[in-house]
Amino acid sequence: MKLPVSTEWVLHCAASLAQIEPGETASATRLAEYFDVPAAYLAKQLQALVRAGVLAATTGPRGGFQLARPAAQISLLQIVEAVDGASSPYVCREIRQQGRGALPPEACQDRCVLARRMDEAHEAWRESLAGVSLADVLADIPATAPAQTRSRLFGRR
After folding, report:
1. Could you please report the per-residue DSSP string of 109-138?
2. 3-state secondary structure of 146
3. Which of 14, 25, 59, 71 has minimal CB crowding within 10 Å?
4. Model pTM greater than 0.85?
């Protein structure tokens, strides 16, 4: 499975927003500069997180993005599915019924074993991501990282 590069962006942005002080926000422009990614495209991805209830957005000169709820209540799966959707990357097109090796329809009454196995793998991947919250991610970073993130993100010392 290959996810778009924007998935990495939103995961890192969400993890960074989980490190800022409560009530503080970071604009899409600031986050784009922080990670050196295209601001307009990142803004669209961040809006998808707002629509999914992962982030909250405020407008105005001091506006920006922040987590919509505590980091412990936001899973990596919620972030990924907000921008990439929930559908399986594998689509069975029933090629077992095509070509010289085509099986007769009566031999294909049950779902293809490969499609079943791919769906099982996709579900295991989803369950794994659902079991990891942003708080879990923050627990695995160095204790000095949040202060460093805030300093670099907002240009403060």
Report:
1. SSPPHHHHHHHHHHHHHHHHHHT-BHHHHH
2. helix
3. 59
4. yes
